[in-house]
């Protein structure tokens, strides 16, 4: 557990009907830290992020963000506090332009003037595509738009769900470089759910492995990357 957490999750339980998806999850993310959550498909990783944003409200447990209990807040209130969420599958609005997609990313942070210059510095291709509909972008460009939309609200913490999913392998290093810069230059903490171990271990300092809705291994990336751990908990 982090000694200076920006996010602290304790004993989180999430149910879908009678099915218990998360079973007492406890994790933390430190200020300025990148933490990964690994696991095979279907173990509850996406449910964890949705539970933190209360898009799938937990049955019980506590979530603290910057020493404030957000366990009962609405998703828009959580976003306003400074948590950005990039969902699995990007989920951009295909019929809206790049500009409109970015504008929606800032709607939840009233009273702020988003620094689009900062966004375009990191994603220059998006500046060239401002009037283009999101659905006409390439897969890599859509992923850039999804990350940029999460960043434009100036979050303190980003929740990233499988950001490399569907990307060409040649684009993964570019994504890693961008996320590393977001963390190191802007100081944004990241909770990363990822299947691509190279990306996860290249970004995170430590992490967790999930099985059947529980965290079964916690440690630094050197420990999580051991052949025996990967074979036992992550190999398909």
Protein described:
It contains 10 helices and 10 strands. It is an alpha/beta fold.
| Secondary-structure element pattern, one letter each | EEEHEEHEHHHHEHEHEEHH
Report the mean per-residue pLDDT as an integer: 90
What would you report as the Rg, rounded to the nearest angstrom?
17 Å
Net shape: globular
* Low-confidence spans: none
Sequence of strands across the biggest β-sheet: 6-7-8-3-9-10
| H/I helix tally | 10
- Please give the number of β-strands: 10
CATH superfamily of the domain at 5-89 and 156-233: P-loop containing nucleotide triphosphate hydrolases
Helix content: 25-40%
Bin the strand percentage.
Answer: 25-35%
Q: CATH topology of the domain at 5-89 and 156-233, anyone?
A: Rossmann fold
- Helix-and-strand structural type: alpha/beta
Quickly give the CATH architecture of the domain at 5-89 and 156-233: 3-Layer(aba) Sandwich
Give the topology, please:
Blueprint: E1 5-16, E2 19-30, E3 34-38, H1 45-52, E4 60-65, E5 68-69, H2 75-81, E6 83-86, H3 98-106, H4 116-122, H5 124-128, H6 139-151, E7 157-161, H7 172-186, E8 189-193, H8 197-203, E9 206-211, E10 214-220, H9 221-224, H10 227-233
Parallel strand pairs: 3-8, 3-9, 6-7, 7-8
Antiparallel strand pairs: 1-2, 1-4, 4-5, 9-10
């Amino acid at each position: 557990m982090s000694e200076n957490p920006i996010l602290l999750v304790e004993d989180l339980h999430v149910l879908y009907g009678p099915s218990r998806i998360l079973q007492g999850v406890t994790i933390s993310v430190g200020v300025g830290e990148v933490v990964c959550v690994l696991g095979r498909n279907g173990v509850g990783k996406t449910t964890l992020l949705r539970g933190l944003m209360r898009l799938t409200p937990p049955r019980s447990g506590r979530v603290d963000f910057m020493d404030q209990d957000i366990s009962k807040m609405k998703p828009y209130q959580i976003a306003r506090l400074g948590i950005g969420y990039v969902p699995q599958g990007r989920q951009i609005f295909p019929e809206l332009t790049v500009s409109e997609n970015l504008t929606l990313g800032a709607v939840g942070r009233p009273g702020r003037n988003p620094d689009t210059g900062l966004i375009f510095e990191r994603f220059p291709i998006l500046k060239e595509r401002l009037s283009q509909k999101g659905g006409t972008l390439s897969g890599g460009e859509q992923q850039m738009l999804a990350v940029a939309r999460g960043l434009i609200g100036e979050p303190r913490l980003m929740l990233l769900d499988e950001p490399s999913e569907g990307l060409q392998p040649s684009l993964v290093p570019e994504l890693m470089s961008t996320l590393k810069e977001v963390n190191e230059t802007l100081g944004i903490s990241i909770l990363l759910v990822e299947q691509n171990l190279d990306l996860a271990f290249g970004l995170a300092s430590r992490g967790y492995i999930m099985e059947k809705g529980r965290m079964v291994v916690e440690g630094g990336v050197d420990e999580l990357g051991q052949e025996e751990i990967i074979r036992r908990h992550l190999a398909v």
